[in-house]
Amino acid sequence: MSLLLATAALTAASIVPACSWNEPGRHPYRGTPAEAVSRYIDIPPATRQRLVEKIVRGAADDRVVITRDDILGRQTYAPQITAMHFGRQTVCEQVTRERWAVTARQPAAVYCADGECLIVPKICGNVSRVHAIAAGGGTGGRAATGGSMTGRTMPAHAPEVDVDAADAMAQLATMPAARTATGSMESTGYAPFGAFGGSGGSDDTPQPPRTAYGPAMPVLAPYGPVVGGTVSPVPEPAIWLLLLVGMGALGLYTRLR
User: Across residues 35-47, what is the average pLDDT?
Assistant: First the structure.
């Protein structure tokens, strides 16, 4: 399981394995520094807090320039940028900038604490991770193990992420479970495309779905009685209105003929 996957107490996100960052600024990060850093759960909480405070204050440890193949600053960095945030709740574990022009340059700020470094490009604010390389050639501090891509090359031909769709999936994952009549939390039982599954029992009889606003609702059997009750359906007022409009249109059409 990815180290980026946060617990329920942290901010949920859609995790994308690899995606393109060939158009910087197209999908800026719209969340807060605290939300982004909370997802790096392999970093100790105290270190995460220091990183958040630095980003909020703008207290960068280094000002760098990102090129197609390198990250240039006072320190030496591995060229890979990992765990990049897009949109509101989307995180891409590996990003590629393979289609950048050789002359392309993007300024960014680097924030470090206890050997962990984050990079925030100026153009988009996409909070990400970067690895500082110590003078001896190894990665500094915990950076040797932190993140998902240390020692790997940038992915080739990675797709561009659909940020809106990924954000929507993350928001669905954080929706509260439905509350039953007894007050316990339970899944709504709804499956894709509007179908619903059973909520218990060993037979194949459809079970009434639970709602967040009250007890179970009866299920209407096709062309037959109501499962779990004998309630007769009552047409909504809008249905009567539609019927009247339809009858009037039919009468007008008949007269015109």
Answer: 96
